[in-house]
What does this fold into?
Amino acid sequence: MKSKFLNLNKIVLSIAVMSLVGCTNLDEKVIDEVMGTENADPEASLAAAYGQLGDGTFVDHGSVFALQEYSTDEAILPTRGSDWGDGGKWRAMHEFTWDANNDVVKTTWNQLNSGITKSLFAIGSINKSNINNKTLFLAEAKGLLAFYTYTTIDLYGQAPYRDPDNLNAPIQIRKAESTIDALITEVEGLIPNLADIKTQNTHAGRFTKQAAYALLADMYLNRAVLKNKTAGSFNFKEQALSGGGNDMEMVIKYSDMLINGGLFSLESNYFHNFDINNDTSKEMIFTIVQKKNSNRNADNDLAYMSMERIQKPSPDNRGTNANCVTPEFYYSWNGNHDDPRFQRTYQYEDGTWFRNDGTDVSVPSTSKVEGTGKPWFHFNRGLQVGQQYGPKILANGNFDLTSDGRIKVYKLFTEKNTTLAADFTPELNFDNPSEAVFTQAQINRGVRNFKFEFDPGYGNNGTSGMDVPLYRLGTIYMMRAEAFFRNGNVSGALADVNRLRTTRTNDALKNNAPGVALTSLDADALFKESGYELYWEMYRRKAMIRFGKFDLPGTAKPATQPYRRIFPIPQATLDASKDFTQNPGY
It folds into this structure.
């Protein structure tokens, strides 16, 4: 068990270290300062701690994403005919039937524990070294430890810890209710030693002062919840740990530092934040860097999982017809389909629009996939509903082209039921309303989310060049809006919500029209706005708990007890270690 790593003796720990060093090559997008080979261990250990962010943990649909999104009204992964049964582990996330033996719960726990372990080892390794930039690297390693620990206590209510400077130290269990204050204090203490973003060769993939501000705003926003997650209500205006204000005032303070600091600005094209080249987005505060030719692990799941198998961005790629949004989330957009964050139509360089409405005959084949030179068919972005259209693959494995070399556009039918139109319906209508199971004749159901750009430069799901945002400026505006609202400043909250709505603009097919400002704001409207800005960014579960929505019934979900707001410690961990105790209710 990865959680047992913290108790390993020096010999086994040394082997583990060599394993980390052996499988982790540090490129310029991880740690830019390359040090001498005699100091390779601290460098590699910090690279390993960063690398765990993208080693499935925050980039694969089946880890943190599954727990933070499949458990909410934003996302569901049903069984579709013969696909995605997998012992019911995916359905359990939405049906709230998970237990301590669920593979998704166990995988996520292990990956987060691995991040904690690698961060602890990096701290110990850097502490023992005399490397250049020691103070900076140590602060970054401690920042990563805080981020992994915060995520773990949010999901599981407890997290492991060991003194990084004592290989024989016993494991400690950090409980959410006491650890949240300690984490806030620790991260605040790191700020003087962290670099400002884009100084000392840093970038959004490094834990900078700005990443710390974002994490602190997040922790203060959720501090009351973490202190008693199963409570009937939360005191969001508790006295802050420092500064004399309350929790919401601290969210506002750290948000102000990011919003007013001049380092970031909102993108008018909302979907640029989720493009393959989103490293050029001006919103990125803290991301998981995923780039071609990088030795770091990466994943295309955020785009691949929602796309139908018949939808092919290139002759070598397809989707997998898995997850979708729920009717509740889709219909929450009623009256807001002109919001620039809802959907965006793709325009090719020659002016051709892919309208995806049955009027398309062909699109240019001049857009090419890097590395293969094959044609790249660009699907639209955002929430995709209704009949879908796209290219067809010929027996020779290439797109069907017109006589002048353009890609023909066809009405699409599902790949595994070739007479069933690929018509993405808002309603799911399971035969058994409490079980998210479709027959083979129903596998087209569910509005799909194409928010994240599919990277066709790799095989099928493969990897991606899209950096996964953990904190971006839109996140901060939304957190500050909520903090204003909970602190009684509704006009301030409305101003932040409207800044997001009106800064985003539609595509030229809609005359680049900006979003429309709201004239009023209440708690339900604010909750909806949170979904519009942050859907599928591993934010929804926390928001639903804060807004009192998480326990309510929904599609394939019964009304549930508050203990479900925390996931169980995996049974395998309990069997292997006496240090952990199971969370109540499991």
Summary: The chain has 16 helices and 17 strands. The mean pLDDT is 92. Residues 81 and 439 are 5 Å apart (CA to CA).
